[in-house]
């Protein structure tokens, strides 16, 4: 019915960690290095969530990633397409991925515009030479290996570095609310992605064979306990409590939640009070990673774990 | 300065792309660009074999990384300042140096690796610095990362490893640190003409640092790094490390002619182009508040430890894990090994020293004289002097390992002529070890690999 715009909606929210090891372990044709596998618990979890995504009708993925770090406000991808080589600066031995992605620029502009109206410092990124960060590439590849949906990347404003974790949390909530409003006004169905791990204490040496699973374990027990506390709250649908805990969790586990991804996504989704679907938890080079999603549709929501 | 100094001069330059991409939009940005250009000309006129860059905008996590792709080529765009334009580049790297630097860093106990991949994301700071300082690739470069977790000891040792490599390869370098002074930027968009230092406090501290630089007091700035970080640095790369590295790579002193060539705001942060040229007539004094470090003895490898530090707080500078297996130790203050072995190795709470004789570090001279000439003809020698020199070498290795002669637990001594030398050796030994009461075994052997009469092998407590 022309002229009567349907209200847009968020059809799924995914917590999608981006260790490049998972792409490396899978040996997709886009990635140059070759592996013998590894990190199966996470990869199988991702495969299952990717299957669920295929059953959902959506127009675009919107992803907030801590590896596009901006200090002057929040930035949004603003070119129609990007095609290049993504090389992980920490693990170039594992991740050299040839990507080719489309951007939903109209949606991106809408989010930038509404964020500005809400008083959030925002900017469109229009430089066609810009290299899309590897967090976006990794999470999107694992959720949608066919790359048949357009993407919008939202940068991670470093409020945590300039101010505090508390300020990060508040700013991310404001940004989430603005993005929800923009999505509703866009009339589109959108999958949100918070691209990050939980605990992020990191081994600072690497096994001779990176995929040697006999050497993989969580950095230490306290990090594991923190991760499990959050996972349990996710299973119980206590997202408001998680966001309240976020500053302490982030401090104690030097978590990538400092980038605001989970807080942003939960705010955009109205702080879900229903259980998350947990698709897997495993460490990658010491960091704690959980794959989870929040499905607002009661009819398709599953109890995975 | 000594002719042996492998560093011709040092430069401290800002990482932001404004002097490269928009020098005409703000007077200060233009002045920084002019200063960059002056440094370029000085490099061109120098005898530098290599430009060695430590960039604070290249954070690494898994050890220290060295760029070794011979000709990295890309079109770089900054994450924040993408609207200023793209930065196409093609650089020339000194692969031999990068690999040597990695080896030297490992020899000093660091975890290190080279990166040599097409498309590796060279950071904004390195791209800006190399584009402006070496636009024609007249001189090859080496870029080293700034490890996020590295503390002072690790960063000092990384600087020393750079000197090791320069000396080993006989190269002369211009060392370049790419870093801001105060690094707090405005968090909202500003017009170029609105640019200024973010706060009066940042300005005040920047002026203090510039005063030190201007007086050539690099080592003093290094010693003040923690204060500088606490006062005018946001967390980004954890601590104000560049002065640690620069001071260490340039020789840990204050004997420089310092020139502040430009200073201006770059979106609120403090950008400066500074040259430090080694001199014998500068201020000279230094205020050491913290110890010097030769070898990094910490360890970050928890892969096989069965778990990390349970007490570790979340902060990235919190205590990290120590494991049983610790690195090997070498020191320039003891005679060079004559084979593929280190001076010492730590295992658990113990230090195991390789056998060490009386040869002098650097010169290989044998105090008390060699036992034979080059043709194998016996010579007269003084066992007491040889024994004394031998013990001093043991002491030097122990001290380089953070231990001391008082920590010695067990000594095995090898003499080539027990009948002739035991008494003299025993007297000197007693002078040093009578109170220490280490266990001892003395053996007569047929020969040692160099023309010496005595060698000692020691086990000591590690500290």
Please give a structural write-up.
The complex is a heterodimer of chains A (305) and B (463). Chain A has helices spanning 20-26, 40-54, 105-117, 134-143, 159-162, 165-186, 221-236, 239-253, 261-268, and strands spanning 9-15, 60-70, 74-77, 81-87, 96-102, 122-125, 151-157, 189-194, 277-284, 287-294. Chain A is globular, with a radius of gyration of 18 Å. Chain A has 305 residues and is α/β, with parallel strands linked by helices. Chain B folds into 2 domains: 7-278, Protocatechuate 4,5-dioxygenase, Chain B, CATH 3.40.830.10; 325-461, 60s Ribosomal Protein L30, Chain: A (2-Layer Sandwich). Chain B contains 11 helices and 16 strands. The two termini of chain B are 35 Å apart. Chain B is an alpha/beta fold and 463 residues long. In chain B, helix 5 runs parallel beside helix 9 (242-250) and helix 10 crosses helix 11. Chains A and B meet through strand 2, strand 4, helix 5, helix 7 and helix 8 of A and loops of B.
Structure characteristics:
heterodimer, A: 305 residues, alpha/beta, Protocatechuate 4,5-dioxygenase, Chain B, six-stranded mixed sheet, two-stranded parallel sheet, 9 helices, 36% helix, B: 463 residues, 60s Ribosomal Protein L30, Chain: A, 2 domains, 11 helices
The coarse silhouette of chain B is elongated
- The third-level CATH topology of chain A is Protocatechuate 4,5-dioxygenase, Chain B
- How many beta-strand runs of chain B? 16
Biggest interface and which pair forms it?
A-B, 50 and 51 residues
Contiguous low-pLDDT stretches of chain A (5 residues minimum) are: none
CATH architecture of the largest domain in chain B: 3-Layer(aba) Sandwich
Radius of gyration of chain B: 25 Å
Helix and strand content put the structural class of chain A at: alpha/beta
Number of strands of chain A: 10
The major β-sheet of chain A equals: 6 strands, mixed
Q: How many helices of chain A?
A: 9
């Amino acid at each position: 019915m022309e002229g009567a715009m349907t209200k847009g909606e968020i059809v799924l929210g995914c917590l999608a960690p981006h260790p490049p090891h998972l792409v490396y372990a899978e040996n997709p044709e886009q990635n140059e290095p070759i592996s013998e596998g590894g990190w199966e618990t996470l990869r199988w979890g991702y495969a299952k969530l990717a299957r669920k995504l295929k059953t959902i009708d959506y127009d675009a993925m919107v992803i907030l990633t801590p590896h596009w770090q901006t200090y002057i406000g929040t930035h949004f991808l603003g070119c129609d397409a990007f095609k290049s080589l993504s090389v992980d600066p920490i693990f170039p031995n594992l991740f050299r991925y040839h990507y080719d992605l489309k951007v939903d620029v109209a949606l991106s502009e809408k989010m930038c515009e509404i964020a500005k109206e809400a008083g959030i410092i925002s900017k469109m990124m229009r430089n066609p030479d810009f290299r899309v960060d590897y967090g976006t590439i990794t999470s999107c590849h694992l959720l949608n290996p066919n790359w048949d949906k357009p993407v919008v990347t939202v940068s991670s404003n470093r409020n945590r570095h300039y101010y505090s974790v508390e300020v990060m949390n508040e700013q991310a909530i404001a940004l989430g609310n603005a993005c929800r409003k923009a999505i509703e006004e866009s009339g589109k169905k959108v999958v949100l992605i918070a691209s990050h791990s939980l605990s992020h204490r990191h081994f600072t040496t690497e096994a001779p064979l990176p995929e040697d699973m006999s050497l993989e374990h969580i950095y230490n027990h306290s990090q594991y306990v923190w991760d499990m506390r959050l996972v349990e709250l996710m299973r119980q649908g206590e997202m408001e409590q998680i966001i309240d805990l976020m500053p302490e969790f982030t401090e104690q586990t030097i978590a990538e939640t400092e980038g605001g991804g989970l807080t942003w996504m939960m705010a955009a989704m109205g702080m879900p009070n229903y259980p998350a679907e947990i698709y897997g938890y495993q460490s990658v080079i010491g960091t704690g990673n959980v794959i989870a999603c929040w499905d607002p549709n009661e009819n398709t929501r599953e109890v995975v774990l | 300065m000594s002719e042996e100094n492998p560093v011709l001069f040092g430069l401290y330059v800002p990482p932001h792309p404004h002097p490269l991409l928009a020098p005409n939009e703000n007077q200060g940005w233009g002045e920084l660009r002019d200063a960059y250009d002056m440094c370029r000309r000085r490099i061109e006129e120098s005898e530098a074999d290599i430009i060695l860059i430590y960039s604070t905008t290249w954070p690494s996590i898994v050890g220290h990384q060295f760029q070794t792709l011979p000709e990295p080529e890309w079109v770089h765009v900054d994450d924040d300042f993408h609207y200023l334009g793209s930065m196409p580049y093609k650089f020339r790297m000194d692969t031999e140096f990068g690999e040597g630097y990695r080896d030297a860093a490992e020899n000093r106990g660091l975890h290190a690796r080279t990166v040599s991949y097409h498309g590796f994301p060279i950071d904004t700071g390195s791209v800006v610095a190399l584009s402006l300082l070496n636009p024609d690739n007249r001189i090859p470069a080496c870029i080293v990362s700034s490890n996020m977790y590295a503390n002072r000891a690790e960063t000092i040792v990384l600087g020393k490893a750079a000197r090791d490599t320069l000396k080993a390869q006989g190269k002369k370098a211009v060392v370049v640190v790419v870093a801001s002074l105060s690094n707090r930027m405005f968090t909202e968009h500003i017009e170029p003409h609105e640019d200024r230092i973010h706060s009066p406090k940042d300005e005040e501290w920047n002026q203090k640092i510039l005063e030190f630089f201007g007086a050539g007091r690099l080592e003093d700035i290094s010693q003040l790094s923690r204060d500088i970080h606490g006062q005018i640095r946001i967390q980004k790369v954890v601590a104000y490390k560049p002065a640690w590295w620069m001071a260490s790579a340039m020789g840990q002193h204050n004997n420089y002619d310092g020139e502040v060539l430009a200073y201006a705001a770059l979106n609120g942060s403090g950008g400066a182009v500074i040259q430090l040229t080694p001199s014998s007539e500068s201020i000279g004094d230094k205020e050491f508040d913290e110890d010097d470090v030769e070898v990094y003895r910490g360890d970050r490898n928890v892969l096989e430890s069965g778990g990390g530090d349970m007490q570790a707080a979340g902060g990235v500078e919190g205590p990290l894990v120590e494991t049983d297996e610790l690195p090997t130790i070498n020191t320039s203050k003891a005679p060079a090994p004559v084979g593929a072995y280190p001076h010492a190795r730590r295992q658990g709470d113990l230090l195991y020293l390789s056998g060490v004789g009386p040869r002098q570090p650097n010169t290989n001279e044998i105090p008390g004289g060699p036992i034979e000439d080059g043709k194998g003809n016996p010579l007269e020698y003084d066992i007491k002097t040889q024994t004394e020199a031998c013990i001093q070498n043991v002491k030097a290795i122990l001290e380089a390992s953070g231990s001391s002669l008082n920590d010695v637990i067990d000594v095995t001594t090898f003499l080539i002529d027990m009948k002739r030398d035991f008494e003299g050796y025993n007297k000197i030994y007693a002078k040093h070890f009578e109170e220490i009461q280490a266990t001892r075994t003395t053996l007569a052997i047929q020969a040692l690999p160099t023309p010496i009469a005595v060698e000692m092998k020691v086990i000591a407590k590690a500290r």
